UniProtKB/TrEMBL annotation:
GO terms for molecular function: epoxide hydrolase activity. This is HYES hydrolase. PANTHER family: EPOXIDE HYDROLASE. InterPro entries: AB_hydrolase_1, AB_hydrolase_fold, Epox_hydrolase-like, HAD-like_sf, HAD-SF_hydro_IA, HAD_sf, PGP-like_dom2. Belongs to the AB hydrolase superfamily. Epoxide hydrolase family. Pfam families: Abhydrolase_1 (PF00561), Hydrolase (PF00702). Signal peptide: none annotated. It comes from Lophotis ruficrista. Residues 293-499 form the AB hydrolase-1 domain. The keyword Ubl conjugation does not apply.
Length: 525
C-alpha cells in the first residue's frame, strides 16, 4: 500500500488521486493510470511486481474494511430533529469499477440521513481547496460562522477554520461528539435509543385503489418480494409508519426480500370524502390490480388498523400469511353484550360517542387541523396522556392551548404533511368508522366462533392509557399461535415513540415465520 500511495499522490495537485477526486478521471481510469505508474516506478527502482499484481485489489480490501461511524450518524439525526441542516462534504471519485454497487449503497444511505451530500467529483474541487467549502456554504445557504465542520484530517479543518467555521477533529468518536455537543448546544451523548432511518413521501411510490363508488384507498409501496402490509389508525397517516417502511423494504428476511405496502385509511383525495359504510365494505378483498394482485401478505396494524388486520385474518384467512397488532387486542364479538353498552362502560372511550353525530366532530377538528393533530398525537411522557381521554364538556379539544406545541413524535415536515392530507380529505371518512360501531359488531357476530389460526403477534405498550395491556388477556384462546411482546416505556403511538425497539420485534418475528407453502398446480383448462 505504501508503494501504491507514492504512485497515487505523485504530482501533487495533478496527481491521479487529485484528478479522480475532481472527477476528471473515473475510478477505472485511475486504476489504469496507476497500473502503468506502478510498472514504471517498479522498473526505475529495480523492483519486480508480484505475479497477478492488480491495483484494484487494495482498493477493494480498503472498501471491505470500511465501516459507517454509527454514533456520528445518530448524532446527525439528532441535530436534524433539532433544526440543524446537515451535510456530508466528501472527497470521492466517480465509481465505474466492479465494486460500484457498494459505493451506490453507501451514498444512498448517507442521503437518507443527511439533508445534503456533496461529492468532490461532482463539484470539480476537493478538500482542502477553499472553493469546495464555498460551494458547500452556498448549497446550505449558510455563513461560515454558522457552520460546525467535522473531519478526520487536520489539513481539511485548517482551511475551514480560516474561513470562519468552527471545527472538530474526529479521531476519538466520544471526544468529538462531546465537543460537537458543546458547540451545538444539543445533547448527543445521553444514551437515548437511536431512531431508525425514516422515509419521506418522496421516497415511496404512491397509488390509489377504488374500494367502493366514490371512495379510494391510498397506499404507498417500497421494496419487492413477499409483502408486509402496514395499516394505521386515527388520526394518522401512512407516514406514522415512516420508521418501519425504510427498515423492512429491501431487508432480506428468511426466505426472500420483503416489500412494504402502507395503507392510508383516508377516503382518497375526495374533499370531505364519503367515508366507509359497514365493515363488510371496508374489509372486502380488493379487485385485481396493484396492490390488488397481491394474493397473500403479512398484515401489521396499529390502533383501529389493528382491528382491521384482526378481522382480515378472521374473514379472509386465505389472504393473510401472518398477522400482527400494535396495542389493539382481539376478542370475538359477544352476542350477549351489546357493543355500544360495552364501549360506554369504559370512560376512556367517551370520545367515540362524541363522534357519532355527523358534522359535529368534523366542525371542531377541521377548524384548525394543525391544532387538532398537535392535541391528539402527543408524546407518551408520564405527565401527558398519549391518546384522547375522557371527554370534557364542549368538545374533544376543550382545555388545551390555542397553539399547543408540536409533540416530539410528530413535528416539522412530518406534521406539515399530516396537516396537508387532513386539510384535503377532512375527517369524515375516519370518523365514519366510529359511526358504524353497531353494524360492524353485527357483522363480526357471523364469525364469533372462529379462531385466527395463522402465526400472530401482539405487541402491548405499558403506558398506553387507552388500549391497556390488560385488555389483551385471554387472546390465546382465540389465537392459538399468538406470540407476545411488550414495550413498557411506550404510550399509544408505538411505531413513532419506540421505533427502534418495535423494528427489532417485528423483524425478529418476520424472520421466524415458516416459509411459504408451495403453490398448487392449477390446470390451464
Amino acid at each position: 500500500r505504501d508503494f501504491l500511495r507514492r504512485v497515487l499522490f505523485a504530482g501533487g495537485s495533478d496527481s491521479p488521486y487529485a484528478r479522480a477526486m475532481r472527477g476528471q478521471i473515473t475510478l477505472s481510469q485511475l486504476f489504469s493510470e496507476m497500473e502503468e505508474g506502478c510498472k514504471h516506478h517498479a522498473s526505475a527502482c529495480g523492483v519486480t511486481l508480484p505475479p497477478g499484481f492488480a491495483v484494484a485489489r487494495p482498493f477493494e480490501e480498503m472498501a471491505a474494511e470500511g465501516t459507517i461511524n454509527a454514533p456520528l450518524l445518530r448524532a446527525a439525526g439528532v441535530l436534524r430533529r433539532n433544526g440543524f441542516k446537515t451535510c456530508v462534504l466528501t472527497n470521492n471519485w466517480v465509481d465505474d469499477s466492479a465494486g460500484r454497487l457498494g459505493t451506490a449503497r453507501l451514498m444512498t444511505l448517507l442521503r437518507r440521513h443527511f439533508d445534503l451530500v456533496l461529492e468532490s467529483c461532482r463539484l470539480g474541487a476537493l478538500k482542502p481547496d477553499p472553493h469546495i467549502y464555498s460551494r458547500a456554504l452556498d448549497a446550505l445557504r449558510a455563513k461560515p460562522q454558522e457552520v460546525i465542520f467535522l473531519d478526520d484530517i487536520g489539513e481539511n479543518l485548517k482551511a475551514a477554520r480560516e474561513m470562519g467555521m468552527a471545527t472538530v477533529l474526529v479521531r476519538d468518536t466520544h471526544a468529538a461528539l462531546k465537543e460537537l455537543e458543546e458547540l451545538a448546544g444539543v445533547r448527543l451523548l445521553d444514551g437515548a435509543e437511536p431512531l431508525p432511518t425514516a422515509c419521506r413521501p418522496s421516497d415511496v411510490a404512491h397509488g390509489y385503489v377504488p374500494i367502493r363508488p366514490g371512495v379510494q384507498l391510498h397506499f404507498v409501496e417500497m421494496g419487492h418480494g413477499p409483502v408486509v402490509c402496514l395499516c394505521h389508525g386515527f388520526p394518522e397517516s401512512w407516514l406514522s409508519w415512516r420508521y418501519q417502511v425504510m427498515e423492512k423494504a429491501g431487508r432480506r428476511v428468511g426466505h426472500g426480500v420483503w416489500g412494504v405496502l402502507g395503507l392510508s385509511h383516508h377516503p382518497g383525495d375526495i374533499p370531505g370524502g364519503a367515508g366507509w359504510g359497514p365493515a363488510g365494505d371496508l374489509f372486502r378483498a380488493p379487485p385485481t390490480g396493484s396492490p390488488q394482485g397481491i394474493a397473500q401478505s403479512v398484515l401489521v396494524g396499529h390502533d383501529w388498523g389493528g382491528a382491521v388486520v384482526w378481522n382480515m385474518a378472521l374473514f379472509y384467512p386465505e389472504r393473510v400469511r401472518a398477522v400482527a397488532s400494535l396495542n389493539t387486542p382481539y376478542h370475538p364479538a359477544d352476542p350477549a353484550v351489546d357493543i355500544v353498552e360495552k364501549t360506554r362502560s369504559y370512560p376512556i372511550f367517551d370520545y367515540q360517542f362524541y363522534f357519532q353525530e355527523p358534522g359535529v366532530a368534523e366542525a371542531e377538528l377541521e377548524k384548525d387541523v394543525g391544532r387538532t393533530l398537535k392535541v391528539l398525537i402527543r408524546s407518551a411522557r408520564p405527565e401527558r396522556a398519549s391518546s384522547p381521554g375522557p371527554l370534557l364538556a364542549g368538545g374533544l379539544l376543550v382545555g388545551f392551548p390555542e397553539d399547543p406545541p408540536a409533540s416530539q413524535i410528530l413535528h416539522g415536515p412530518e406534521l406539515q404533511y399530516y396537516i396537508q392530507r387532513f386539510q384535503k380529505s377532512g375527517f369524515r371518512g375516519p370518523l365514519n368508522w366510529y359511526r358504524n360501531m353497531r353494524p360492524n359488531w353485527r357483522w363480526a357476530l357471523s364469525a364469533k366462533d372462529r379462531k385466527i389460526v395463522m402465526p400472530a403477534l401482539m405487541v402491548t405498550a405499558g403506558k398506553d392509557v387507552v388500549l391497556r395491556p390488560s385488555m389483551t388477556k385471554g387472546m390465546e384462546e382465540w389465537i392459538p399461535r399468538l406470540h407476545r411482546e411488550h414495550i413498557e416505556d411506550c404510550g399509544h403511538w408505538t411505531q413513532m415513540e419506540r421505533p427502534a425497539t418495535l423494528n427489532r420485534i417485528l423483524v425478529e418475528w418476520l424472520e421466524g415465520l415458516p416459509p411459504d407453502a408451495p403453490l398448487p398446480k392449477i390446470s390451464k383448462l
